[in-house]
Amino acid sequence: MVALSSFDQRRGIALWQNLRHLEGDRMASAATRVFMVRHGATVVSAEDRFAGSTDVALSDEGREQIRRLAERLRNEKIAAVYASPLGRTVETAQILAAPHKLEVETRDGLREISHGRWEQMTRREVEEKFPEEAAEWEKDPYTFAPVGGESGLAVTARALPVLVELVRKHPGENILVVSHKATIRLLLSSLLGFDPRRYRDNLDQDPAALNIVDFKDATRARLTLFNDTSHCAAAGEAVPPIPERRLSRWWSARGA
Question: At what angle do helices 87-97 and 60-72 cross, to 10 degrees?
Fold first, then answer.
């Protein structure tokens, strides 16, 4: 092995540092922006029912929410639009894609968490009929799954690879991804290094919420905008009210 002189070593270090800067500049210019959207309100949104894998339709209110978001994003340069294959997300994506003259591409991994035998039941009905399951789910919704349903871990395992694949497919571009409340919160927990067992306690997603996630590369992401629904407010208000529902029992109990 030939020993390097101190000059050669310094030159090598300088070259490596320059390459790092060049690579950093190239990656910065190729950053991918993901407009991550939850679908609009559905016909069961106000009923507090478990409707993860159930294919419920958007309500008229939900369509109006998404039309307002579409107007907000009209002038953004969107390269592609992706959605969960469920009807409420596909329709949301189609409304958002229309101003950009883009077709919606579906990805099965983006679908909502399945609640198994809880599907279409209210929270109260689940607590009365399956009290032990409901208690375990409140304690740790990331690793626990109702009979016939999915855990948060299982959702992350199928959704995160899809998102990473899309980021790699669109370097330096803006893409729009339409998904669901639990799926989006689980993705953000994973990307940002949050404790995923607390995703229901610490993160919310309103109907038609806009999130913006900027990717330096497929494994490094920054949350730039979270759960923004200012486009839905008649007065264009940017400050949301303190949430009173739709979160975990922990939040409701503490907020009571």
Answer: 40
Contact (CB, 8 A) for 133 and 148:
no
Q: Which residues constitute the domain of residue 43?
A: 31-255
Residue 141 counted as domain residue: yes
Q: Give a yes or no: residue 121 inside a domain.
A: yes
Do residues 89 and 110 make contact, with C-beta atoms less than 8 angstroms apart?
yes
The number of domains in the chain is: 1
Residue-wise pLDDT for 193-235, tens only, equals 989 999 998 899 999 999 999 999 998 999 999 999 999 886 4
Residue 6 lies in a domain: no
CATH number of the domain residue 251 falls in: 3.40.50.1240
The low-confidence residues of the chain, meaning pLDDT below 70, are 1-29, 234-256
